[in-house]
Amino acid sequence: MPSDGFNPALLPAGLADLLPPDAAREAALVEAMLAVFGSHGYERVKPPLIEFEEGLLAGSGAAVAEQTFRLMDPVSQRMMGLRADMTPQVARLAATRLRGVERPLRLSYSGQVLRVRGTQIAPERQLPQAGIELIGADSPVADAEVAIVGVEALARVGVEGVALDITLPAMSPALLDAAGLAGEERAALARALDRKDEAAVRALAERAGPPAVFLPGLLAAAGPADAALRALDAVALPPAARAIADNAAAVIAAIRAVMPALRITLDPVEFRGLRYHTGVAYTVYGPGRTGELARGGRYMSGEEPATGLTVYPDAVLRAAPRLAEPARVLVPVGADPAAAAALRARGFVTVAALGAGDSAASQRCTHVLRDGEAVADPASSGAAAPFQTGADGAPSFTGAGSALSGKD
Amino acid sequence: MPSDGFNPALLPAGLADLLPPDAAREAALVEAMLAVFGSHGYERVKPPLIEFEEGLLAGSGAAVAEQTFRLMDPVSQRMMGLRADMTPQVARLAATRLRGVERPLRLSYSGQVLRVRGTQIAPERQLPQAGIELIGADSPVADAEVAIVGVEALARVGVEGVALDITLPAMSPALLDAAGLAGEERAALARALDRKDEAAVRALAERAGPPAVFLPGLLAAAGPADAALRALDAVALPPAARAIADNAAAVIAAIRAVMPALRITLDPVEFRGLRYHTGVAYTVYGPGRTGELARGGRYMSGEEPATGLTVYPDAVLRAAPRLAEPARVLVPVGADPAAAAALRARGFVTVAALGAGDSAASQRCTHVLRDGEAVADPASSGAAAPFQTGADGAPSFTGAGSALSGKD
């Protein structure tokens, strides 16, 4: 450790190392999901980590402006930003270099994003993202496609039984508009909706009169999509709100046509979430307590209608089942390299002993190459011993199985 | 375009978008190479893009200190760096959280690195890296293993016929030391070696006396490894230089034992390259004019002997053969989703028509889903039409085939 007392194991808050086997698992999950995106015609783009801030913070990028690290470009003497979201970059590409490609345009991406500060709930300041954008189409089937492809990608990596939670961020504003609500009265009702304070919503809405009076009922209708859609049907919505409701019904019908068993919930008057959404917005929740796995919805990509979904691979990593690691086979000094290659071709991991000191146990191998075959190592009794990784300033942990393992 | 005249298509110098199909190709290449690394027991780690600068610039990181972007951490009020190389991060991990894992430790990684400035030859300021580090072993077979695994990874992605160029960065200093050369005399000889100016090396070395007199001959011996090794054998090297030569011979013999056909060159007195190398250093050149694909060698990982190789996926992308893209099949409105899913399972890309306006031609599809089968679209005559992508401030280009295509 240097004499200034710098602890080399210490990383800035919210930044972490991903260790074996999680780093390999995350990469495999991302590529498997991108393969699903590709199979539906979403073509991969890779924008740079850094851009001029004007480009990065345009459009939907404004939502993450405060979370964007800034850097001075010594070449141009202009400010650059370290991306906090990839969607604005895809919008930039669609509007510039891919402007001449016929619409709808389907693009996919994966990469790291960085944030200036974490939150208490989400302390991470570097996050992986993987996603799709469908640009130049504004029909309900476009919204449905993006949700369907996202759910299929999660299923491909073993995350089954997800729930799709749909919100209509424009619905409450449409009802408040139609009720002619403004100023403090409108703000109070919006706050009550935000808190899901049904009693307050009821009191404020009754005072405001129609069509705000529908708000408490619609707040209570949040839940399984069919019941929520019936609640929307049952009231005399003003035209703008009716169009939003009809669109939601069409999106949900288009999803059900392909995925009849998918659990869909609808919260008609919820309006949290990314403020740039212009139509349906959705969140994909994993089974059990695995939380938000993806988020998306309709927005404007520059001047074009678009719909997209961002998957959070770090959350998917927590939700996805662990696959069995391949067996590790120690290759003794002097063994035939072709025999080791043959084992690798069969899916084994081979670890070459570099000297007499390298044993199956020291190299966490369950097998040893002997006479061209992977023979279970008697010392390991078929399973590698768990071991501890040392850590300075970080808790020690015990990993089991054949790979290094750890949690940040 | 905003009124301040900012051109949204303009990226900072040395930063670029990777478009279809190159972004997908690069990702596939990286994952295929990481799979080869994994099959040899190299376990993947994923350090963060940003760390405290003390950690990032320690050890071999000092070599890229000037090229490292600095950022103030608003949380700790300390300076962080945006990594310009991943090797120092792997060394940090090995020395801290993985300190307790038995050696040798095999780690692999892939990710993006950033540089403050590009050079004329290498203008890129964001580069992908993929690599392996073998930590805690100092034998020639360790050096050989890293080179072999790297060459195998390149072969896996279709890059055959590479050449491995070995240098011995410590050889010239050892000869200059043994000749007792210092000051301006030493500097002049070092410069002449650096320029490969044989006449100047000869003149300066003769004046310096033994064993510097071997330098011109060894400079001329650069080339196929066997001849260069014979040239080293033919002269009475001082002990330190002899040890370096014997080690090189052992590394080359260990590589040949596994890859007898690999083209290996040896430049005994070349000492360019990464200054932190302590033993053999190597560069892997692609066939033809494809240039440097990987670079590595022996170094100190903190207090531990280590050897590693960094592959440059952007260079590999240029050197690797293009694989055929899967056929794109238009799925007409109202077609059976199960039929489209069956085509995807067979390797087709399906593109859903979202309305009557979406045709095979507009969606660059060569086939249309009809009666459950992918039928060649008569309009496309079996091949999608090339198209042009529009670009603001960037040259237009013509792509051919079924995917978006472009060059930065």
UniProtKB/TrEMBL annotation, chains A, B:
Subcellular location, record wording: Cytoplasm
Domain of life: Bacteria
Domain Class II Histidinyl-tRNA synthetase (HisRS)-like catalytic core stretches: 14-316
Keyword Glycosyltransferase annotated: yes
InterPro entries (alphabetical): aa-tRNA-synth_II/BPL/LPL (IPR045864), HisRS-like_core (IPR041715), HisRS/HisZ (IPR004516), HisZ (IPR004517)
Composition skew (Low complexity), residue ranges: 377-386
Entries under Pfam families matching the protein: tRNA-synt_His
GO MF entry, a single one: glycosyltransferase activity
Disordered as annotated region, ranges: 377-408
HAMAP family, per the entry: HisZ
Protein's name according to its UniProt entry: ATP phosphoribosyltransferase regulatory subunit
